[in-house]
């Protein structure tokens, strides 16, 4: 009888299904926002058609939804986990400027603006004076500059929003943690209440930004863009309208009170839709990997196998969610914990052994990076080709002796005079004739040059032009720039950024992986005392204690000895991200020691190991001393 092989569903099947449900929730919020803005843009000549969804309001909603959906597409296509670990803002700018993802951000916001602008202009009444063409009588017409000013305003908003999007790294999925290093748990209702509570702040922020951008657009439009936009507007409209032949820019400015109000109103609607979409995406997409109050993999035919597949995933987002689910199982789901302890017949080893190995390797990656950073520089090896070449030269020099003479050794040998020998003799004579000849400049000439220099350049200027003074001048300028509160942070390589890059790696790092790995190991170890009937966990507890101790001590030692960069004028050794991971590892180590210290001898833990573990758990001050 042929044995049927059961396929383990991959973890991404359950994760993608959960993410799709969350995407639909975000799309629903976006549809509601587009409908509300469509109602606000209605002319209100009829109280029925102003809000009735089947009609002009529904059409406006569709176009506004097309405007907002581009931001949603952008977030779905570029979401990632982990914060940037660039050593400075300048390095991050250089690293990300030429990426395709950067161009996609600008493209998405510009296309969104291109859909929004015509909808807004089409809903303006004649009193707003936002028609592109103004008829003067008969077939005479002229271009109205106010819509051009509005278009410039909207596209400057798109440019500013794109830069702000990249600066804040809006595409990051933030796994927020509390003070104890554990993930904050929120129900769906709590998340929606949190979003609703942020709406007043969004309104204030959007209103202020729209007004500020009116001032910015006024300066940029009249200084740079006015003639350019006016020329292109004439080019596109002349084939359809009888416009004046002159291409001169109008003498009257388009900036009136009506224009300011219309620009601020359009900017408010566009920015509010973008900001609300980003807030909803950031809050709704990062929720607990639960479905109906149970872990995502609970519906799998092989829950442990699907979870293990996620833990081994090469995609950072899937691995982060799988580790989060493992931490939730270890803390809150006894049935799944027991299933992990009892699953011992897997192909690559028991479930606990594989989970333990994966989590330990994640934590040990910190140790590996710190050791690589603290290791002394190794001189580069000598290439084999260079060594071979040197040996060949040596052999060639051995064979370079002249042959043995066979003539009389008493006969004087007269070396023939050649041009080269005569030249060498002359140069040697010049060198040995004295210091005056060797210098090439007589003392009288030196004295004359010094007198001319003293007459043309004052002594103060001569001292200022000295090499050490020029270097100190550049140093003072650099320090003044670095100490400036507005410009300095852009160039500083702070201790926090550099140490984060060493501890967590680059270019992105997700600290929730380390938090959940440490939390899962400590919770499973403690729970194994009452739930692990086979005793598989007991054999690994001693190694876990040593691993946690070594990593904690290595991080604390490296934090106190890690050098400061010369641009770090503040010199503050503050690393909140590393401190959160340290706090979670210390908490986990304390939990393990609290339950297993009485079994230290059985776990092959010496008194020195226990003492070091307790020292690692102790709180340290800024100098690394135990409190």
UniProtKB/TrEMBL annotation:
GO MF annotation, one: spindle pole body-nuclear membrane anchor activity
Localization (cell): Nucleus membrane; Nucleus, Nuclear pore complex
Chief location: nucleus
Pfam families: Ndc1_Nup
Membrane topology: Multi-pass membrane protein
GO BP: mRNA transport; nuclear pore organization; protein transport; spindle pole body localization
Coiled coil: none
Similarity annotation: Belongs to the NDC1 family.
The protein, known as: Nucleoporin NDC1
Organism encoding this protein: Thielaviopsis punctulata
Lineage of source species: Eukaryota, Fungi, Dikarya, Ascomycota, Pezizomycotina
């Amino acid at each position: 009888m042929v044995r049927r092989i059961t396929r383990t569903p991959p973890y991404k099947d359950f994760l993608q299904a959960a993410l799709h449900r969350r995407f639909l929730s975000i799309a629903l919020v976006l549809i509601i926002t587009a409908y509300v803005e469509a109602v606000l843009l209605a002319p209100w000549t009829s109280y029925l058609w102003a809000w009735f969804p089947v009609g002009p309001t529904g059409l406006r909603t569709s176009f506004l939804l097309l405007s907002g959906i581009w931001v949603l597409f952008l977030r779905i296509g570029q979401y990632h986990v982990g914060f940037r670990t660039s050593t400075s803002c300048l390095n991050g700018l250089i690293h990300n400027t030429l990426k395709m993802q950067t161009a996609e951000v600008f493209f998405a916001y510009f296309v969104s603006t291109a859909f929004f602008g015509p909808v807004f202009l089409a809903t303006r009444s004649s009193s707003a004076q936002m028609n592109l063409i103004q008829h003067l009588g008969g077939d005479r017409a002229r271009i109205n500059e106010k819509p051009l000013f509005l278009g410039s305003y909207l596209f400057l908003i798109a440019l500013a929003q794109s830069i702000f999007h990249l600066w804040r790294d809006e595409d990051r999925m933030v796994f927020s943690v509390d003070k104890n290093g554990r993930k904050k748990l929120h129900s769906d209702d709590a998340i929606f209440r949190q979003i609703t509570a942020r709406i007043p702040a969004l309104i204030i922020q959007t209103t202020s930004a729209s007004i500020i951008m009116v001032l910015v657009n006024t300066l940029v439009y009249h200084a740079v863009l006015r003639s350019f936009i006016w020329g292109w507007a004439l080019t596109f409209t002349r084939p359809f309208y009888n416009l004046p032949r002159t291409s001169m820019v109008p003498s009257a400015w388009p900036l009136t009170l009506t224009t300011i109000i219309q620009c601020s109103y359009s900017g408010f609607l566009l920015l509010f839709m973008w900001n609300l979409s980003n807030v909803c995406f950031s809050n709704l997409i990062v929720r607990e990997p639960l479905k109906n109050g149970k872990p995502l993999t609970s519906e799998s035919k092989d829950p442990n196998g699907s979870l293990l597949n996620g833990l081994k995933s090469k995609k950072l987002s899937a691995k982060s969610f799988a580790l989060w689910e493992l931490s939730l199982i270890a803390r809150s789901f006894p049935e799944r914990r027991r299933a992990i302890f009892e699953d011992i017949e897997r192909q690559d080893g028991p479930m606990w052994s594989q989970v333990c190995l994966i989590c330990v390797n994640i934590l040990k990656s910190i140790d590996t990076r710190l050791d690589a950073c603290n290791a002394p520089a190794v001189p580069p090896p000598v290439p084999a080709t260079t060594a071979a070449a040197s040996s060949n030269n040596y052999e060639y020099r051995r064979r370079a002796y002249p042959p043995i003479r066979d003539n009389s050794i008493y006969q004087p040998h007269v070396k023939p005079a050649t041009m080269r020998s005569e030249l060498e003799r002359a140069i040697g004579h010049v060198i040995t004739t004295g210091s005056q000849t060797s210098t090439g400049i007589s003392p009288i000439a030196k004295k004359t040059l010094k007198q001319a220099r003293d007459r043309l350049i004052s002594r103060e200027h001569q001292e200022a032009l000295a090499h050490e003074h020029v270097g100190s001048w550049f140093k003072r300028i650099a320090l003044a720039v670095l100490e400036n509160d507005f410009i300095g942070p852009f160039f500083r390589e702070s201790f926090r950024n550099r140490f984060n890059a060493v501890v967590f790696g680059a270019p992105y790092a997700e600290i929730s992986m380390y938090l959940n790995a440490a939390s899962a190991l400590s919770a499973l170890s403690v729970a194994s005392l009452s739930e692990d009937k086979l005793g598989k966990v007991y054999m690994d507890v001693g190694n876990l204690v040593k691993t946690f101790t070594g990593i904690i001590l290595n991080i604390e030692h490296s934090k106190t000895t890690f050098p400061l960069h010369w641009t770090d004028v503040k010199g503050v050794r503050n690393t909140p991200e590393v401190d959160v991971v340290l706090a979670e590892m210390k908490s986990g180590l304390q939990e393990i020691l609290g339950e297993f210290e009485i079994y230290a001898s059985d776990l092959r833990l010496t008194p020195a190991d226990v003492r070091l573990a307790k020292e690692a758990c102790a709180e340290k001050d800024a100098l690394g001393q135990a409190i």
